[in-house]
Amino acid sequence: MKRLVSLTVPEGASPSLAGGMMILRMQRSGVPGERLLANVKVTDLAAFLNAHPSGDPGLEQIFDY
Fold first, then answer.
1. pLDDT tens-digit readout, 6-61
2. Which helix (H) or strand (E) is 51 found in, with range?
3. pLDDT score at 19
4. What is the tally of structural domains in the chain?
């Protein structure tokens, strides 16, 4: 089982997405930086969240689908 996670990063940053697979990278509208969407296995989610705390830049949202 996986979860979709959105992160914000400074433009051009190359964050480690250990435990996750990047799906999309896009410019943010009206604010500096980029938004990343990644698939993260539920078993890897705790480590991923520890590596990417919420904030800007940082974790935006976890989607449960």
1. 999 999 998 889 889 999 999 999 999 999 999 999 999 999 999 999 999 999 99
2. helix 45-51
3. 83
4. 1
Count the residues in the chain. Answer: 65
Residues contacting 34, CB < 8 A, separation 6+: 8, 9, 10, 11, 12, 13, 25, 26, 27, 28
Phi and psi at 46, nearest 5°, equal -60, -45
CATH number, domain with residue 38: 3.30.70
Instruction: List 62's β-bridge partners, or say none.
Output: 5
Amino acid present at 44:
D
Residue keyed to tokens 């996986």: 2
Domain span at 51? 2-63
Summarised one tens digit per residue, pLDDT across range 7-17 is 999 999 988 89
